[in-house]
């Protein structure tokens, strides 16, 4: 389901990720350039987007999230 380039990344699809800021179910997964990963609810993803963007390799919705990430750019 994901490309081989993601082989060293913890796969978030088999359990419910919680927002790292408020512990509600996360909707967005952020892979940082440092190698770590963070998950955020939509509210916190928006709040931290400008901070995370230059440090992130990937910012993407978690599997099962139907709302596209482009909502974060508004
Ligand atoms: Zn949150």
Q: Order the strands across the largest sheet as they lie in space.
A: 2-1-3
User: What structural class results from the helix and strand content?
Assistant: alpha+beta
Distance between the termini: 29 Å
- What is the count of distinct domains? 1
Q: Sum up the overall morphology in one term.
A: globular
Helix count?
A: 1
Beta-strand content bin: 15-25%
What is the total tally of β strands?
A: 3
Low-pLDDT ranges: 1-7
What is the helix/strand order?
Answer: EEHE
The level of helicity is 10-25%
Q: Describe the biggest sheet? A: 3 strands, antiparallel
- What small molecules does the structure contain? zinc ion
Estimated radius of gyration:
12 Å
Mean pLDDT across all amino acids: 79
In short:
Helices cover 15% and strands 20% of the residues. The chain has 1 helix and 3 strands; from the N terminus they run ββαβ.
Can you walk me through this structure?
The protein has one domain (14-67). It is 15% helix and 20% strand. It contains 1 helix and 3 strands. The protein has a 3-stranded antiparallel β-sheet with strand order 2-1-3. The longest helix has 11 residues, at 42-52. The radius of gyration is 12 Å and the shape is globular. The termini are far apart. The model is unreliable at 1-7 (pLDDT under 50). Residues 19, 21-22, 24, 40-41, 43-44 line the site of zinc ion.
List keywords for this structure.
15% helix, 1 helix, three-stranded antiparallel beta sheet, 74 residues, alpha+beta, disordered N terminus, binds zinc ion
């Amino acid at each position: 389901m994901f490309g081989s380039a993601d082989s060293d990344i913890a796969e978030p699809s088999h359990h419910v990720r919680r927002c790292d800021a408020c512990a509600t179910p996360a909707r967005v997964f952020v892979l940082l350039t440092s190698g770590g990963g963070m998950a955020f609810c939509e509210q916190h993803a928006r709040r931290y987007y400008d901070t995370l963007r230059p440090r992130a390799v990937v910012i993407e919705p978690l599997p099962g999230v139907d709302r596209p990430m482009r909502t974060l750019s508004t």
